[in-house]
Design goal:
The chain has about 600 residues and is of the alpha/beta class. The protein is about 60% helix and about 10% strand. The structure holds adenosine-5'-diphosphate (ADP) and magnesium ion. Keywords: ATP-binding, Membrane, Nucleotide-binding, Transmembrane, Transmembrane helix.
Length: about 600
């Protein structure tokens, strides 16, 4: 529960009402049905009085009983219709919110999503929307209907007997205050219990994300204990909430009993003195019950409403998430027109150029005056971690935009290209190379609409997966675990590269996309890429020597600036470059030499 949850209830209520505005019609129907239900209930005591008085007067009871029965049946029908319509309205409201949230999340910029906790975003779409679905519309309707019911009930009682009505008002007010006091505690205790449950799921999520690490570091016991601690706290908080709930329930019962009995006692005296008839007393007693019941429902909903409003506030926050926009409408920053008709420029003109780019996250500068040009062939980016390599690739995909300078695709500023076009022309394999799609085939073609089988086969061949996939009983239809656990890191990376190749883009960005392959396999993969897709601009981030050895140009970043550029051989004279490639994970120049010399295109084990 966020600290300001309770401090802004009215603005949250206003948000709820404005969000419900498109459902004005349905909401009116629901209100009318609920008011009808309550009205039918309020008529019943009057009808009952007529029956009682009729008995006393030995009059014909046919009509009063018929009216009583009809009113009861109408009330039941209205209740059914109101309940159903209200539920349906809730569902439609939540459906709209959920769809809007999904749209806003996928439309948000990378920086927005990556700066937030996944668990938090997930709970807004899941738990928060469920909370709203269950309670909020009902609570809002009760907020309108119940006070009206109470006022109408009191007015009707006043028409029967002012004295008894006043007694009932005083008694109900006292009972209401007592109930509200206890109820506030129920709400607080329930919220505390929910917080502990959130802690519980947090532990589970953490464990699942790093399951192997938990196992390998023998931390099962520790994690289980941490889970137990949270579960115990949740239990204690829940039991406390149950205890307060029991108290609240008892207070509510006592209030009805007390009000009923006192009214009965006072009423009997008034009947005996002849001030009111027996029918009047019966009617008033029925009003005590019919008013008490909705008031109780309202106290209940009030708690739910505050929960629902807090959930709505978190959802609204998400709905206000910034969205990526095309800036195609802005005046073009570049003279070379964008290739906006979807046709590709001739390979000779293809290039990705970083022109005096400056960039920082917040006020932390990350890239300083970076100028790079990559043309068809392999450009390798090296640099120690934190040097800004991933950031550089992010700029080319326009996940982030430069503070100064520009990134140009075939001479056109990427900010002048529609995002869909830019990302269609620039394929990207992100660090960690996660897979999307349930099967190998889906993972290999994710985001690509039309891949013909022959091309896919060639691509899988290029990334060295074809033999392996064809050997699987289900081939491309083989399922992949949720986070690709049944396949090796190397296979996952190969699939990710295949997916990027299937896009048939001009530019391919690989962010340490071959890091889990052994040097020989990486070498083979890179060789087939540069052979089979020679007209593409490939920019690959790597820490590996052999890959740099094969590159047309190597660019070394240091503290966000281009430290050196040239071929691998050119750079060997640079002490920082030598230091970088001397690290054990980088492989040695001799290994690179041997690997290249060993020449033949032995596709290594894809299991690497
Ligand atoms: N989303 C981000 N918010 C703030 N700082 C970031 C973000 N991403 C990267 N950085 C910082 O920017 C610098 C460069 O990061 P990155 O481009 O990922 O480096 P590399 O890929 O070379 O390891 C690092 O200091 C890193 O901490
Ligand atoms: Mg990186």
């Amino acid at each position: 529960m966020e600290p300001d949850a309770a401090s802004r209830p009215t603005s949250s209520l206003r948000t709820l009402i404005s969000r419900l505005a498109p459902f004005r019609g349905a909401l009116t129907v629901v209100l009318l049905l609920e008011l009808g239900t309550r009205a039918a209930a309020l008529i019943q005591p009057l009808a009952a009085r007529a029956v009682v008085d009729g008995v006393a007067a030995r009059a014909d009871l046919m009509w009063p009983i018929a009216v009583l029965g009809a009113v009861a049946i109408i009330g039941l029908c209205l209740n059914y219709a109101g309940f159903y319509q209200r539920g349906k309205l809730s569902e439609r409201f939540v459906l709209g919110l959920r769809k809007a949230m999904a749209g806003r999340i996928v439309g948000a910029p990378v920086s927005y999503v990556e700066s937030r906790s996944t668990a938090d975003l997930v709970s807004r779409v899941g738990a928060d929307s469920t909370l709203i679905q269950q309670t909020t519309v009902k609570a809002l309707v009760d907020l309108v209907v119940v006070p009206l019911t109470v006022v109408a009930g009191i007015v009707l009682m006043l028409t029967i007997d002012v004295f008894l009505a006043l007694v009932v008002i005083v008694l109900l007010s006292v009972a209401g205050l007592a109930e509200a006091g206890v109820f506030r505690r129920v709400v607080v205790d329930t919220e505390t219990a929910q917080e502990h449950v959130a802690g519980l799921t947090g532990v589970v999520q953490r464990v699942l994300l790093a399951f192997r690490t938990v196992k390998a570091s023998r931390s099962e016991r520790r994690e289980a204990e941490s889970f137990d601690r949270n579960a115990d706290s949740a239990y204690r908080a829940s039991v406390k909430a149950v205890r307060t709930g029991a108290l609240a329930d008892t207070v509510a019962y006592a209030a009805v009993d007390f009000t009923f009995l006192v009214t009965l006692a006072v009423g009997v005296v008034r009947v005996s003195t002849g001030s009111v008839g027996v029918g009047d007393l019966v009617a008033i007693l029925l009003y005590v019950v019919y008013i008490q019941e909705p008031v109780e429902a309202l106290t209940n909903s009030a708690g739910k409403l505050s929960e629902g409003l807090a959930a709505l506030r978190r959802i609204t926050e998400l709905l206000d998430a910034p969205q990526e926009t095309d800036t195609a409408a802005a005046p073009a920053r570049t003279e070379v027109p964008a290739v906006s008709n979807g046709s590709k420029p001739p390979a000779s003109r293809r290039s990705v150029r970083f022109d005096q780019v400056w960039f920082g996250y917040g006020d932390q500068p990350v890239l300083r005056d970076v100028s790079i040009e990559a043309v068809p062939g392999l450009t390798v980016l090296v640099g120690s971690s934190g040097a800004g390599k991933t950031t550089l690739l992010s700029l080319a995909e326009r996940f982030v935009e430069p503070e100064r300078g520009a990134v140009l695709l075939d001479g056109a500023d990427v900010r002048d290209l529609p995002l869909a076009e830019l990302r269609g022309r620039v394929a990207y394999v992100q660090q960690e190379a996660p897979l999307l799609g349930a099967t190998i085939g889906e993972a290999a073609t994710y985001g690509v609409d039309d891949v013909d089988e022959e091309r896919l086969r060639r691509i899988l061949e290029s990334v060295g997966l074809r033999t392996w996939i064809e050997g699987l009983p289900l081939g491309l239809d083989t399922e992949v675990g949720e986070r690709g656990v049944q396949i090796s890191g190397g296979q996952r990376q190969r699939l990710a590269v295949a997916r990027a190749l299937a896009r048939d883009s001009e530019v391919l960005l690989l962010d340490e996309a071959t890091s889990q392959l052994d040097p020989l396999n990486e070498q083979n993969l890179v060789r087939s890429l540069t052979r089979d897709f020679r007209d593409r601009v490939v920019i690959a981030v790597t820490h590996r020597m052999p890959m740099a050895y094969q590159a047309d140009q190597v660019i070394m970043l240091r503290h966000g600036s281009v430290h050196a550029r040239g071929t691998h051989d050119d750079l060997l004279s640079d002490p920082h470059y030598r230091q970088l490639i001397a690290s054990p994970s980088a492989g040695s120049p001799e290994l690179a030499e041997q690997l290249t010399a060993s020449g033949e295109d032995g596709r290594g084990e894809p299991g690497a």
